[in-house]
Amino acid sequence: MNGISRPEDDAVRKKAFAFIVLFGVVSLLADMTYEGARSLVGQFMQVLGASAAAVGLAVGAGEFLGYAIRLFSGKLADRTRRYWTVAIAGYAVQLGAIPLLALVGRWELAVLLIFAERLGKGLRNPSRDALLSYAASRTGRGLGFGLHEAMDQIGAFLGPALLSLLFLLTGTRGAGSEATYRLGFALLGIPAVLAVLAVLAARFLFPRPSDLEASSHAPHLGRTTFSPAYGWYLASAALLAAGVADFPLVAFHLGRAGALPEPLIPALYAGAMAVDAGAALLVGVLYDRIGFAVLPVMWTLEVFTAPLLFLGGPAAVVAGMALWGISMGTQESVMRAVIADLVPHDRRATAYGLFHTVFGGAWFAGSALMGLLYDRAPAYLVVFSVTVQVLSVMALLIAWRVHRREHAS
What we know:
- Residues 17-403 form the Major facilitator superfamily (MFS) profile domain.
- The protein has 409 residues and is an all-alpha fold.
- It has two domains: 1-206, MFS general substrate transporter like domains (Growth Hormone, Chain: A, Up-down Bundle); 218-409, Growth Hormone, Chain: A.
- Helix content is 82%, strand content 0%.
- The longest helix is centred in the N-terminal third of the chain and has 41 residues, at 7-47.
């Protein structure tokens, strides 16, 4: 009977695929909301009287808080087994904060809402990834997480694009009209409400996504601690995050160096987001077909990103942003799929929470350090980035070897 697909297996697989697509719709709508808001909030705070330092500190601190809470929320979800409750609460807090920006009159209140939005995202992400991992065991984890990331990135593109259209239609120029910003945040309440309704529909239609987990994809069910392979993988991911340059720093360099005309810089970012979506799907399928071996190749591509972006001319910058987009797509799809293959299902939310907390902390620290190094000379930034990325590949190879040994035993 080997190789023969049973009708009940096909039915479960179709149900799992439907769950992933529905959650993809949730993420598409959610990303429309908060990525749209992120494209306006800096300018809006400026209109309200905030300084550049206040904007930078608020955004950076919000990101840190959003990653730091993930370890707590992951443990909470695994301990209580209330994955849906934690996820829905996170979506409600995150998406509810954004339309309220239309009502604030002081930049300090806007900062509080920015913190609420980031904390809401941090609260729901580990539970969301755990729920997705169950269904993705039936479709192929790479494909499942890749499809979800692709739909996520469609929303990340649509939100800012539609708000740009709003500004064009209203004829807003320069610092912009405060009324137009408020209208933009209010309009983002529409996809926010739809996203919450979609996640409630998913909860109603799929009350127990863990039932979709394929038994052959539930590793080490008796294990009470994380495996050494997970530890090495976590170290590799942290090094990778520390060496990735944030796009604001890339944009700052491109503007100062004149490597590209300023109007093309946002278009370059949009192109990277399109590459992100395509790479998430492609790399996900490759992971399902050839397994862990695809990861060292993707990690190695990242080594070349900083030299191309910070030391090259226009053609090199375009190539570097393409690699940057591939890296983002890999991080948001296959990196999550691997965790599901390394960790038992009853500790998966904790594993995702720990992963995101370490990853975010390393990204924050690496970004801050690269900013300081760039002020000295772009070459210093490049040397740092390449060094930690090479170390990341080495740690990943160790994780692969340890995983193969654990799997063999």
